[in-house]
Write a structure and sequence with these properties.
The protein is built from 5 helices and 3 strands. The chain is of the alpha+beta class. A hairpin with a 5-residue loop joins strand 1 and strand 2. The protein binds FE2/S2 (inorganic) cluster.
């Protein structure tokens, strides 16, 4: 590539990043670039894959031990905001009991994100919804398991 083209591409990229930071705010932008707990968890005992109306999915993996989430992770094929919200939802889930997890609503993820533009709010709702489904999956397995202590 010529130097001029290099400069043009770099300027364009910086402009896009700058616009994304302004649109989404520092908190979401930073987490979008550096998400925590992304990827599949091994030995999880709560799982969900939820598809939103936008067509994107967020998967949540939860590992409970002694009645608390000791590990959590997420995967998404969605937008930057869904990556950030998946990360926030798992960060919020770690260390929580099932009762405490119920408090992680779309609104709570949105607050953690410091807000989102109107058209991206559903990304926070999708992350929280997937988290709640993963909790439900865990509760269902726990109830039907004859070795209940395997879930404690
Ligand atoms: Fe679909 Fe963000 S646009 S999750």
């Amino acid at each position: 590539m010529s130097d001029r083209l290099d400069d043009f591409v770099q300027e364009l990229q910086e402009k896009i990043f700058q616009e994304a930071r302004e649109t989404y705010g520092d908190t979401v932008y930073e987490r979008w670039l550096n998400p925590l707990y992304m990827g599949e968890l091994k030995n999880y005992n709560g799982y969900s894959r939820l598809r939103g109306q936008c067509g994107d999915t967020i998967e949540i993996f939860l590992k409970f031990e002694k009645g608390r989430v000791i590990e959590a992770s997420f995967k998404t094929d969605g937008c930057g905001a869904s990556t950030a919200c998946g990360s926030f939802a798992t960060e919020m889930a770690i260390g929580k009991t099932p009762d405490e997890l119920l408090e992680i609503t779309g609104e709570a993820v949105l607050n953690r994100a410091g807000g989102l533009p109107q058209e991206d709010k559903h990304c926070a709702v999708l992350a929280a919804g997937s988290l709640q489904d993963a909790l439900e999956d865990y509760m269902r397995k726990k109830e039907s398991c004859h070795h209940a202590d395997a879930f404690d």
